[in-house]
Every structure is written in C-alpha cells, then in structure tokens.
Amino acid sequence: MNKINKVVLAFSGGLDTSVILKWLQDVYQCEIVTFTADIGQGEEIEPARAKARSFGIKEIYIEDLREEFAREYVFPMFRANAIYEGEYLLGTSIARPLIAKRQIEIAQETGADAVSHGATGKGNDQVRFELGYYALKPNIHVIAPWREWDLTSREKLLEYAKKHGIPIEMKQQIGSPYSMDANLLHISYEGRLLEDPAKEPEQSMWRWTVAPEKAPDEPEYLDIEFERGDIVALNQERLSPAAVLAKLNQLGGKHGIGRLDLVENRYVGMKSRGCYETPGGTILLRAHRAIESITLDREVAHLKDEFMPRYAALIYSGYWWSPERKMLQTMIDESQLNVNGWVRVKLYKGNVLVVGRDSKTDSLFDPAIATFEDDRGAYNHADAAGFIKLNALRMRIATQLRKSLKK
Question: Looking at the domain assignment, is residue 120 inside a domain?
C-alpha cells in the first residue's frame, strides 16, 4: 500500500461515506479533506459539516454547484438530445464529471495526493469518477474502499458504524427500501423490490411526481424560450439554468411527467433494473427537439441524430472528459447557433405535447412553399418527377438486371 499523506473524500455524511471516512483514518492513517457538493439533491447538506468536524476533519468543503451543473453539464448534454438505450436521460451519469473535477481541484488546492469515492465495485459510478480523476490529473492516487474492504453488505456497514461510534440517523438505521441518487436533473431508485424486473414498483417509491392518473384533470400550457439551444425563459420570465430545471421539475412532477422503469446495460457488463424520475428533463428534451425541427437544416438534424447514441454512451460510461466527447460537443454546439425561438407545450397526465413553435429570426419553415393551397409558383410540382426517377435509378437498374438473368 502506497503511503498517502492527504486524501479528498467525496462526502455526503450518510452511512456509506461516514464509514469510509473512519475507515480511511484507520487504514491509511492520513489527513482527510471532505468535499460535499450541492447539485440540487434536495437535501440539507450543511449537516455534513458537523459530521466531518465530529471526525476531527479540519479542511471541509461544502459548495453550491447547482448553476454550474445545469449550465456546464446538463444544458450541453441536452443540446445533443442525449438518451441512453432509447430511454434514459443520464441524470446520474452527467453529475459525476463535475464532482470529479471539483475533487481534483480541491486536491490541488490542498496539496492532497489522493482522492476517494463511495461507489461500489459493481456499478458504473466508480468508472465515471475515476475516468474523470485520471483525465484531469493522470498521476492521482485513487482509493475505492468498496474494492478494498470486507464490508460487503449494509448490515456490515451498520455493525462497523456501531462499533466505532459513528452516529447514523434513524432513517438510515431503519434502512431505505431503495438505493437512491438525486440531483437537479433526476432521482433514481435501485435495489430491493426492483431487483425483480417482473415486479411493478410501489407507488410509494416515487418522490417527485404524482401518478399520471392522479394528475390534474386540466392541462397546463407552458411557453419555453430558447437561445442557442438552451432554455432562457419560461412563460416570458427569464431564469438561470438551475432555476429553469427546478421550475420544470415542479411543473412536470405536478402533471405526472418523467417516470421511467428501465433495465439497462451497465458499462461494467451486467444488466440492472432502475427507476427514474426526470420531469424537467423530459419537458426540456421534447421542447428542444421541437425548436430544432424548425431551425436546423435537414442534414444537420439527421447527422446529430446519428451522433447522439455514441455521445450518450460516452456520458453514460464516464467519458465526459475524453477527446472524442469534446470533439462531438464542438460540432453539437456549432449546430445550435441558430436554435432560437419559442415552443409551447401542453402538460397533461404524464404527457408533454408540443402544440406550437416559432422562431422570428431562424425558422427554416416557409409557409409559402409548404402550403397545400396555391403557392403562386414557389414550388414546381413537375420538378418532382425527375427527382424521383433519379433516386429510383439504382433500384430500376438492379430490377432490370435480375429480370435479364432469369431469361
């Protein structure tokens, strides 16, 4: 074991990271810096400071990263319309690069020679954190306790906490029925009942959204304004990126929007069943595609759709800081320069219905050409005959060849 002098720990103050903090002190006997990030998880994070102090920690970082998270990570991802395996909006995946970046920055600020996280050895998060660490500081030492210790179950963690006098809140002693992760974009649920993919999730599990059948009987209309592919205003009120997501979450949750029950393919090789609530992201995605439909050139739009699965897989697997993701982002951002305008959506019982869209400056939709009425010569219908024949030429040649070979 390499001698570690100081380590920066991603610290929530919950059971896992509290045990990790004590374990690091006992096993590595090093100085520890704790880092707690507020990325919109909706829980009070200040108690983490008191918890860290109770362990004798002197360097404690507690930071509000909500605006940076929304502006520099969530919004760029949604410019690409990124979805993993056709459904997952990457809520957990996109948060990890920011946490990893800030950990490395704190390590440099405090002179730490190691970083540590609480991700297990079965999940994707260990990959996401550590690919970020190594991309930003190649020689950093990474401590992943779940891959080193013999505390292989929740019961063993609780026993360790009791033995070492680690205070655990009553809700953690009782135990939550699900493993949950939340941020400004989503909340996820894994474990317990969900480990049987044949069983329907309990209604009591969902926290952000009402059941669609219990949502209001009247639809709600929302006007969404875009500039360069990002939302800048809701119902004519300009908002910051974090405020946009918070408001969309509130509206989407109210109308039962954004629930997902998914069996996904983890990067580490196994299939995993998880449930997600992404109310704001679901509205954002639908609206963004709507404004792109009138502002993007056809071939640019189609090329973006071809890139998207690759881009989404890179984020899912932890390659946010990779050169290929950055290259794709440059192309995506260039495509968004003229994605300006507004979209009107109707929110109703789990659905986001686009009912209007317009761009005063960048719309490529020309009513004079698209009309079914008299276009006064804007489009010559007879031109279509040659266009069709030329596009059919290869198929006509192949059919004629096959017929000649049969004679």
Answer: yes
Are 116 and 209 within one domain? no
Are 219 and 311 members of one domain?
yes
pLDDT of residue 44: 84
Do residue 156 and residue 271 come from a single domain?
Answer: no
| Domain region containing 307 | 182-358
* Global confidence as pTM: 0.94
Q: What is the pLDDT of residue 172?
A: 45
195 and 113 within one domain = no
125 is catalytic: yes
Q: Which of 116, 125, 259, 335 is catalytic?
A: 125
Q: Check whether 204 is labelled as a binding-site residue.
A: no
User: Taking the chain (407 residues) in consecutive chunks of 10 residues, what is each chunk's mean pLDDT?
Assistant: 90 93 96 97 90 96 98 98 98 98 98 96 95 98 96 89 82 60 96 94 96 98 98 98 98 98 96 97 98 98 98 98 98 98 98 98 92 80 94 96 88
Q: Residue 400 domain-assigned?
A: no
- Residue 15 labelled as part of a binding site: yes
The answer to whether residues 63 and 38 touch, using CB atoms and an 8 Å cutoff, is: yes
* 262 assigned to a ligand binding site: no
- Tell me if residue 196 is catalytic: no
Of 99, 104, 106, 102, residue with least CA distance to 139: 104
The answer to the question of whether 211 is labelled as a binding residue is: no
Q: Which of 38, 66, 79, 96 is catalytic?
A: 96
- Judge whether 16 is annotated as a binding position: yes
* 306 part of a folded domain: yes
In order, the DSSP letters of 214-259 are GS-SS-EEEEEEEETTEEEEETTEE--HHHHHHHHHHHHHHTT--E
**Is 114 part of any domain?**
yes
Phi-psi region at 236: left, alpha or beta (left = phi > 0; alpha = psi -120 to 50) = left
Q: Do 188 and 171 share a domain, yes or no?
A: no
Whether residue 240 is annotated as binding a ligand: the answer is: no
240 is catalytic: no
Catalytic option among 49, 113, 154, 179: 179
Catalytic-residue membership of 179 = yes
Nearest to 37 by CA among 84, 103, 82: 103
Give the separation between CA 37 and CA 45, rounded to whole angstroms.
Answer: 8
Given 16, 66, 335, 357, the catalytic residue? 16
